[in-house]
């Protein structure tokens, strides 16, 4: 079952998505992941509807008509937006129509996200693509992107390159 994290990883790195889907999860103890966990613990202290989990979705908070997500930086804006659109779509399928807000704490700004029918069609295609990636026998190749150096899977992906 596709989750919000699968959507996030789909836009960041297909290899990371595949590894995560195969339960090769190296995030525990990684500095950036710990920073995110602390941020989520401290965000929305006054919200009564915080850290809501429904089936395959885990929402930071619901504040009136908005589903809220908090991120440290906007470096993964596209992935963040599609993750939130996925939550909005899943809630809509359960009869809840909401808008979304993504707050980037480092830049101190918030973006509104509104789900459209076109987004819903695209999400259906994305979910199919994610299923195909997860069903592959071997992981997709390393993307060799600057974002790799800060990834929890860096040592796994680049282990052979460090050996002589």
UniProtKB/TrEMBL annotation:
One of the GO biological process terms: defense response to virus
Broad enzyme group: hydrolase
KW Iron-sulfur (keyword) present: yes
Cofactor(s) this protein cannot do without: Mg(2+); Mn(2+); iron-sulfur cluster
Domain DUF83: 4-158
Coiled coil: none
EC number: 3.1.12.1
Keywords: Antiviral defense, Exonuclease, Hydrolase, Iron, Iron-sulfur, Manganese, Metal-binding, Nuclease
Cofactor binding notes: Mg(2+) or Mn(2+) required for ssDNA cleavage activity.
Superkingdom classification of source: Bacteria
Gene Ontology molecular function: exonuclease activity; iron-sulfur cluster binding; metal ion binding
Entry similarity comment: Belongs to the CRISPR-associated exonuclease Cas4 family.
Record-linked NCBIfam families: cas4 (TIGR00372)
Function summary: CRISPR (clustered regularly interspaced short palindromic repeat) is an adaptive immune system that provides protection against mobile genetic elements (viruses, transposable elements and conjugative plasmids). CRISPR clusters contain sequences complementary to antecedent mobile elements and target invading nucleic acids. CRISPR clusters are transcribed and processed into CRISPR RNA (crRNA).
Annotated PANTHER family: CRISPR-ASSOCIATED EXONUCLEASE CAS4 (PTHR37168)
Protein name in UniProt: CRISPR-associated exonuclease Cas4
Organism field: Lentibacillus cibarius
Phylogenetic lineage: Bacteria, Bacillati, Bacillota, Bacilli, Bacillales
Gene name, Swiss-Prot/TrEMBL: cas4
